[in-house]
Write a structure and sequence with these properties.
Length: 647
């Protein structure tokens, strides 16, 4: 159980301020999470890469860059890698919407006693205006990528009524609000909500903090109720407090922690990959999968901005001109001295040349100004030797640099997607081998499946804590806990890629099972699992023993049956019916769907019996012993050999 003097009071005497890295509780444990600074730095770096404004790592002086050019870069900045985050986030948001995802509740409403229905509780709008699934999944994907150390928390109220069911607040808390979390032991969380109070000295409204303290079986809630900014003091309202009479008649405050009935801390973190550990895992820092892509995205932004500068220099090339003589007004100094009546000198900018020292034109990028040639000496005839007078000209930019920066930008974005195994979201390089494409897709699929598995476990824990927190230990919560099934695989390959693999399998004559699997995957991508095409193809594999044979192969098989089996036998009739079933399969399924709207909801055995019965209408048995030879086995008829026509 939490102890007020050990776990709560040291935080309150800081008047709501964040503890320092060296601050310790009376039991010797740190008040602040050891990785708190690293966690904030992680979130800041991710936010900067995807921010609209120019990030600080690009706000630097390039070699020989003027302030005007630097300000121009900052003004025209556009974050061209921002779509990366949206595309990746949408991949993780698919976990809940795919067909394999399911929350299966074990009991019906009639089987739940005492009105303690966990499913109805979780489907109510008590989770910040949503049900538990909408609340969790709507925030999880973004938090998982951008702030993996943020937490989904169930916050109980300060006071609980013994005669009513407990209440709670469900809240996603950013990692900056998680002051401390010892794994499974102790957590201190600053609520995203504020308690509006007044500064007793300045008499102004102030956002008082609300702090939650948890251990594995109890909690405290502390609300800041007053603050004096001059004295640096604050008052707190703490849950579980009551006034008692001590020895000698003095009144004292006693603080007792309230049980939350959960079997652990009522919170889960968004991420699951451990980046750093301290004290053997007692403290953890979770890493974002985006960290693998950030170096490439940063370089992509730099190359994109380099391309903008090169494009500007090419579109508006630097100009240079010959200035024949200094400005006659200022004699090339760009400044003019003026004297007033008291003979006091005032220096101002020359209005004739605008401070340039020479009269010249300029453009948005400035001017290269060349002075008149100076005398270098005299020749044998005592004539002045000087450099030739340069003409007026332009320095055009090199388009090759623009192409290079553009290619480097695309390359770095591709590498960023590849670092996450999601290169298919950007593009699939045509030069990449089919094996490499499938490897990239498989890596991305594994990332999604792993993340979905962990997320499903987190949602299950939140549901369990919800029931325990509201109904208590005697509420029959464990019997009502649902089974959360997350997808085991994702169809993240494009239709073109699947079609390409299918064509290769057919051309290379792979096994029928391999071709069937690829065909099924292609139909799932094109038509969907609920389409008649997909279900018909899947049903044929289940009930048609000749599903892998073409029409000519079926004819040959049927000819062999007629030539080798007794035509009046039961085995002959059954096998011939199965061959006819395979030949007429599509037609029979169409008839069955037309006659029975519930055909697809039947069991495979029932579907097979129905199709076999319908197939009898299309089977006409021959009982004579006339030899049947398949058309594919007959030789070609030549008009020059009339003997062949007699057969």
């Amino acid at each position: 159980m939490l102890n007020y003097e050990i776990h709560i009071k040291p935080y309150l005497i800081l008047h709501g301020n964040l503890p320092g890295a060296s601050d310790l509780l009376p039991d010797g444990t740190p008040m602040l999470h050891p990785f708190y600074g690293d966690i904030l730095a992680q979130v800041k770096e991710i936010d900067e890469v995807f921010a609209k404004a120019q990030p600080p790592f690009m706000d630097l002086n390039r070699p020989k860059e003027s302030k005007a050019h630097k300000d121009y870069r900052k003004a025209i900045f556009k974050n061209t890698v921002k779509p990366f985050l949206g595309r990746v986030t949408r991949q993780y948001e698919q976990i809940r919407v795919v067909e394999d995802y399911e929350v299966e509740w074990p009991l019906s409403d009639s089987e739940v006693s005492n009105g303690r229905n966990l499913r109805q509780l979780c489907e109510s709008k008590r989770f910040s205006g949503d049900n538990v699934q909408d609340w969790f999944w709507s925030k999880w994907a973004n938090a998982y990528l951008k702030d993996p150390n943020s937490a989904a928390v169930l916050l109980p109220p300060a006071q609980q009524s013994e005669n009513q069911l407990r209440t709670f607040k469900a809240m996603w808390v950013s990692s900056a609000k998680v002051w401390q979390c010892r794994k499974g032991e102790f957590a201190v969380i600053e609520s995203e909500e504020k308690n509006i109070i007044k500064d007793t000295y300045n008499n102004v409204l102030f956002e008082g903090k609300i702090l939650y303290f948890f251990d594995h079986d109890s909690y405290f809630v502390a609300k800041q109720t007053a603050i004096n900014s001059v004295q640096g003091t604050s008052n707190w309202e703490v849950s579980g407090s009551k006034t008692a009479v001590a020895e000698g008649g003095a009144l004292v405050q006693i603080y007792t922690a309230t049980p939350h009935n959960c079997e652990g801390l009522p919170l889960v973190f968004a991420g699951h990959t451990v980046g750093k550990v301290h004290e053997g895992g007692r403290y953890e820092m979770l890493a974002s999968i985006l960290e693998y892509a950030l170096p490439h995205l940063k370089k992509a932004l730099q190359r994109d901005e380099d391309g903008e500068i090169v494009a500007l220099h090419h579109a508006v090339p630097r100009e240079w001109e010959y200035a024949p003589s200094p400005c006659p007004t200022c004699q090339g100094t760009g400044k003019v001295d003026e004297y007033d009546e008291e003979n006091k000198k005032t220096t101002t900018k020359c209005e004739t040349c605008q401070g340039n020292g020479v009269q010249s034109t300029s453009n948005g990028l400035g001017v290269y100004q060349l002075r008149p040639p100076s005398v270098e000496g005299y020749d044998d005839q005592m004539k002045v030797v000087s450099l030739p007078t340069p003409p007026v000209g332009r320095l055009d930019g090199d388009t090759a640099a623009m192409e290079m920066f553009s290619k480097q930008f695309e390359q770095q974005v591709t590498l960023a997607y590849r670092a996450l195994g999601m290169e298919h979201l950007n593009h699939v390089p045509l030069a990449q081998a089919g094996v490499a494409k499938r490897y990239d897709a498989k890596e991305g699929e594994m990332n999604l499946v792993t993340a979905g598995t962990h997320a499903g476990a987190k949602l299950s824990w939140i549901i369990s804590c919800t029931g325990q927190l509201v109904y208590g230990t005697l509420g029959g919560v464990k019997e009502q806990l649902p089974t959360i099934r997350t997808p085991k695989r994702f169809e993240i390959e494009g239709i073109d890629t699947v079609g390409e693999r299918l064509n290769q399998a057919i051309q290379n004559k792979y096994s029928p099972e391999t071709i069937y699997t690829l065909q099924l995957e292609y139909l799932r991508s094109v038509a969907g699992e609920n389409s008649d095409e997909f279900r018909m193809y899947q049903l044929r594999k289940r009930i048609d023993p000749y599903w892998f044979m073409g029409f000519e192969a079926l004819n040959f098989e049927q000819a062999q049956v007629f030539n080798t089996m007794k035509r009046d036998g039961q085995a002959f009739q059954k096998k011939n019916q199965l061959i006819e079933l395979s030949k007429n399969f599509e037609m029979l399924v169409q008839d069955a769907v037309s006659e029975d709207p519930n055909f697809w909801s039947k069991k495979p055995s029932e579907q097979r019996a129905m199709l076999m019965e319908m197939n009898k209408e299309y089977v006409d048995m021959r009982t004579d012993n006339f030899e049947i030879q398949p058309a594919t086995m007959q030789g070609m008829v030549s008009v020059q050999d009339t003997n062949q026509l007699k057969n």
